[in-house]
Amino acid sequence: MEFIDPALLAYCQDHTSPEDDILKHIDRETHARVMMPRMLSGQLQGKTLELFTKMLNPSVILEIGTYTGYSAVCMARGLSRGGKLITLDINDELEEMVRGFFAKAGLTEKIDYRLGNALELIPGLEGNFDMVFIDADKINYGKYYDLVIDRMNKGGIILADNVLWSGKILGNTEKKIDKDTQALINFNKMVQEDPRVENVLLPIRDGIMMARKL
Ligand SMILES: C[S@@+](CC[C@H](N)C(=O)[O-])C[C@H]1O[C@@H](n2cnc3c(N)ncnc32)[C@H](O)[C@@H]1O
Question: What molecular function terms (GO) are annotated for this protein (predicted)?
Answer without folding.
Answer: O-methyltransferase activity; S-adenosylmethionine-dependent methyltransferase activity
